[in-house]
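Hey,
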Amino acid sequence: MKLIDLVQKPVLTQPIYEPGKPIEEVARELGLNPAEIIKLASNENAFGPSPKGIAAAQKALADAHLYPDGGTFKLRGKIAEKLDLSPDQIVTGNGSNEVLELLGHVFLGPGDEVVIGTPAFIVYKLVTLLFGATPIEVPLREHRHDLDALLAAISPKTKIVFLPSPNNPTGTANSAEEIDAFVRKLPDHVIFAFDEAYAEYLENPPDLRPLIAEGRKIICFRTFSKIYGLASLRVGYGYTSPEMAALLNRVREPFNVNAPAQAAAVAALDDDDFVAQCREENRNGLRQLGDGFNELEIPFVPSEANFLLVRVGDGTKVFRELQRRGIIIRPVAPYGLPEYVRISVGTKEENARLLEALKEILPGVAK
């Protein structure tokens, strides 16, 4: 018998998430100097990591011979303090992706349905398929989630509805009022999974804590990978009801968040000046890129996150041409958007270099 004959059949058709290539790999493949490559592909914080977070992580390395706190007691306490919640409402993960997967472990199986806007973060679909459930994909309307259409797609088989705001890869957000009304219309058998990966870039992000307190079936996800700049440490969390958190913690791997990541996240939550500075620099970057795209007559979707969805014609070709020039962006053909690329906000100098390269690559667009 061959090994493949022993595999669970859904594994053979499970899509594989393809991350962007790291700087070092691109440099090796193209014969470039890695120090001269800029990466604007993964919605990372171009302004670096939280200084308080890095200092705490470095200190924690002195105890690298010890296992981390398996219950993330201090981190859950700090998050709870920040959000005015109880620690038993917090679930921590190896990035918020892991918390998404925990949701699948607890609630999804064959015959279940999950309602997802499309295009949106592809991991929602991957988690759904991983557990044998069926994704019900609802097209966006003018690059925003169509909340009425999401409601209409719900059936008696629906277990979860995912909503990211701001959305990846479009950068668009639904208003707090829209989301509140949407949640209040959800049937009682549906869990609302609200992805807030980019919430810190919003001036006034939606607040679903009152709805959680009312007893509604809600879980919100956040991450330290974006505005806090701790992407390589892989730490995220969900906040929800104590009942749901307890269920998710039943299937959570022991020691799933390493000690330096826990220490960095705790410290980063107090790095308010850094977060405010990054938010302001990001706004400046969005304006710089938007003005540049307008000057080059390149259409783009206005964003409330730290990236822009840009219509360039042949997205894959533009991606390759930019990569040859040492600029890494993200083609989004896998999201059904072959004419677009996603470009993360960089520093002022990185943004300028990108715009100059696009002027060379896209003939006829420069005035």
